[in-house]
Amino acid sequence: MNTSSSNAAEHTAKMPLVITPSAANATAIPLSIFTPDIFASWMKEQPLLTQNWLSQQHITKQGHSLIPNNEGQIIQAIFVTEQADSFWACGELVNQLPSGQYAIQGEPDQIEKAAFSWGLGGYRFERYKKNHKSLPQLLVPTDEIANKANRFIRATSLTRDLINTPAGDMMPQHLAQTLSQMAEEFGGKLTQIVGDELLEQNYPTIHMVGRASVHAPRLLDFTWGDDSAPQITLVGKGVCFDSGGLDLKPGAGMRLMKKDMGGAAHVLGLAQLIMAHELPIRLRVLVPAVENAVSANAFRPGDVITTRHGISVEIDNTDAEGRLVLCDALSEANHDKPDMIIDFATLTGAMRVALGTELPGFFSNDDLLANGITQSGLNREDPVWRMPLHQAYNDLLKSEVADLSNCATSPFGGAITAALYLQAFVDKDIPWAHFDVMAWNNRKLPGRPIGGEAFGIRAVFDHLQQKYK
Known about the structure:
The protein is elongated. Strands 1, 8, 9, 10, 11, 12, 15, 16, 17 and 19 form a 10-stranded mixed beta sheet that branches. It has a 6-stranded mixed beta sheet with strand order 2-7-6-3-5-4. A 3-stranded mixed beta sheet has the order 13-14-18, with no helix packed on it. Helix 6 (172-186) packs parallel to helix 10, helix 8 (204-210) runs antiparallel to helix 11 (322-333) and helix 10 packs parallel to helix 15. Strand 16 (361-364), helix 13 and strand 17 form a beta-alpha-beta unit. The protein is built from 15 helices and 21 strands. The protein is an alpha/beta fold.
């Protein structure tokens, strides 16, 4: 067993796009955000020069403008939008305004939302290709607002960075380095069970899925917080690349499989939010980290394995590997009898068929937990949708030679049967939620560029923050 709390590669610090008053300079340009009706009223009170200038730009329902004085110097910026109170209102504005500092005006709640989308709209993944265009900074009126926005921006950016990083630079050992770095920053502890140690300590399915790779499989076990506080355990699928195993994926299906560790990226982003806000909980994060590769010792269709939970599983398809690594981790998560277990995984295409790529579905065995997360998602504009744990579909997971099959006999309801498989490894008396997420933006939206994305972590965090104040 290897215990570590450092040795992580340092991340390059990025210039904050949301800044505090202490970072302001004298040339900061006032920025006002208007709804169309308020903009129309405001326009009537402006000098004739300003009215003429803006009328020529035809800004009525959506748009921005820089307003000059008589000498041509910019003295004000305005942004008109019908969604002025949205968390994503300024997600594209940060890319439209020229570089410089903009001092936002308005109510604190609106400013907080604008700061959030400003920072995430300016997200760039620049590990391999630099973008030399400078982005503008948003000056908010208080340090509290800036710090709050930057905590969310940083956590989401961490999740995006991890997902966007190609598998060659994001293998199990690299996930371990990221958690080690977080342990060093926040005062946590990271324990790793690596390679054949997984067999010695009874994590057979994690070992089985990852044994064909030259990158040793491992279980990452991270803890933080007061031992006496209520425990929350997060579990994240860390399949750093999924070839499909011997049931090899076609090329098109394999192209984005660097994102198959998206569940791990989500729980790391969520963990960072929890620790940065110093929630009064005992946090445990379990990440089964593997590469599902092809080699002479790869696991095969038809193999039977007895899991950590004591349940025997017949392998119907080696491309249904995520639930296999998760089941051993969920079994371990029961051990401490936490207040709740929450897992994230890029688990099924069936969920994308049901809800599309931008609305994450989740399952839960506890109505209070599910309702709380759903409401928090609405409050934070991070929507999630509860799906049914339809118990009758358990029959579809029956095997003639084992307790369970890792795949259902029917392709229909695939997200449900995957969730039912996982539920078999969670103790009935522990509230549990399972998120099946895309972890990727297929299209560009304000504040959400194409690429890796965090879905549902703000919803879960808001619920935890409300519950554990």
